[in-house]
Design goal:
Radius of gyration: 22 Å
Order of helices and strands: HEEEHHEHEEEHEEHHEHEHHEHEE
Number of strands: 14
Largest sheet: 6 strands, mixed
Helix content: 25-40%
Strand order of the largest sheet: 10-12-7-13-11-14
């Protein structure tokens, strides 16, 4: 009788080793001069002496995943973009306080390690880190047979950034008369996919390979569009002009996320007539008979990041973003709270 083994229980150590070999090429591209050593250690090393140039460096940290968007990647058997979503969710939370992302680590749990699939996920993470200007210093791949099906996986990540203490951005800097600038999203990003999947798959009965004229591509291609990563764009703004706050528009929508950086005595009024959401948002609403308030509290509606700047900074801010190929526009303004009970309101209608 053959005794029990790890492999017989469903865990393939050799496959994990093969995955590491395949991902090394991509991880090597997501680095910074401060990274010490290479892939394969028990911990990633980052030379903190680089922080000596700061008078009072504050470390910022964030962790996140990509939610049920991974279900779309699994159905399409395309795994090389979901990592960029992961990076965007993490580093753009860091930059909201003005922090420069320094490094990330990732965690991938799967029912069965398929080396090529794991390497494709890590490729996307590495590409995202390169776009964000941070290093991928380590990670973990865990095989969980019995907990996850062989083709199932989930991803999570954590990032660390640094900001000078007296340059931390946030609610305490915002003043009446400030202007709210929107930065366009690349699509749905990585939030609201439980609603989106329910509408397209369960309600409308659409298949991922359905050609959608409004998208100019298939439904699956639209749903897998990677999250735009704004960290370097936001940092460029802080270098070229005065910025009081950023807000990363993720789960909860535009109003709820911006409200997190609006102080209690102030109010931000946003004008829907300043932009037209991409067709994917309109179709979710129409196909699912989703009321506008529900859409706006679930999806980003085409705005992925918001900057709050003094009025004197608007022209330079818009020019800086244009130079970086970021579609941006004046979304609204900040006033005293007055009779407004809510921190943020949306007024008007989107252009027809």
């Amino acid at each position: 009788m053959t005794g029990a083994s790890y492999a017989a229980a469903g865990v393939d150590i050799e496959a994990g080793d093969r995955a590491v070999e395949l991902m090394k090429e991509w991880v090597a591209r997501a680095t910074r001069p401060e990274v010490v050593g290479g892939l394969g250690g028990f911990a990633g090393l980052f030379d903190a002496s680089a922080l000596k140039r700061y008078e009072r460096p504050l470390l910022a940290t964030s962790t996140d995943g990509v939610g049920t968007k991974v279900a779309v990647a699994q159905k399409m058997d395309r795994h090389d973009t979901i990592g960029r979503d992961l990076v965007g969710m993490v580093v753009d939370d860091l930059v909201v306080c003005g922090a420069e992302p320094l490094f990330m680590t990732d965690y991938i749990a799967t029912g069965k390690v398929v080396p090529e699939r794991i390497a494709a996920v890590v490729k996307g993470i590495a590409e995202g880190c390169a776009l964000a200007g941070c290093a991928l210093v380590g990670g973990e791949t865990a095989e969980h047979p019995g907990l996850l099906a062989p083709d199932e996986y989930d991803v999570a990540g954590a990032g660390t950034g640094v900001v000078e203490a007296d340059r931390v951005l946030g609610a305490d800097r915002i003043r009446p008369g400030d202007v709210v600038i929107a930065m366009a999203a690349s699509g749905l990003h990585s939030n609201g996919y439980s609603l989106v999947r329910h509408v397209f798959f369960d309600t409308a009965g659409w298949a991922l390979d359905r050609e959608v004229p409004e998208f100019g591509r298939t439904l699956g291609e639209e749903l897998l569009e990677p999250t735009r990563i704004y960290s370097l764009d936001c940092l460029a703004l802080t270098r070229t002009t005065e910025v009081h706050a950023f807000s990363h528009i993720t789960g909860g929508g535009l109003a709820n996320n911006l409200a997190r950086v609006v102080p209690d005595h102030l109010h931000a009024s946003l004008d829907r007539s300043t932009w037209t959401p991409d067709p994917v948002f309109t179709l979710v609403g129409e196909l699912g008979s989703v009321a506008r308030p529900e859409l706006e509290k679930t999806l980003n509606m085409g705005v992925g990041m918001v900057a709050v700047v003094p009025e004197a900074s608007v022209d330079v801010a818009l020019a800086t973003l244009a130079d970086r190929d970021v579609d941006a526009w004046v979304l609204g303004g900040v006033t005293e709270r007055g009779d407004h009970r809510e921190a943020v309101t949306l007024t008007g209608d989107h252009p027809a």
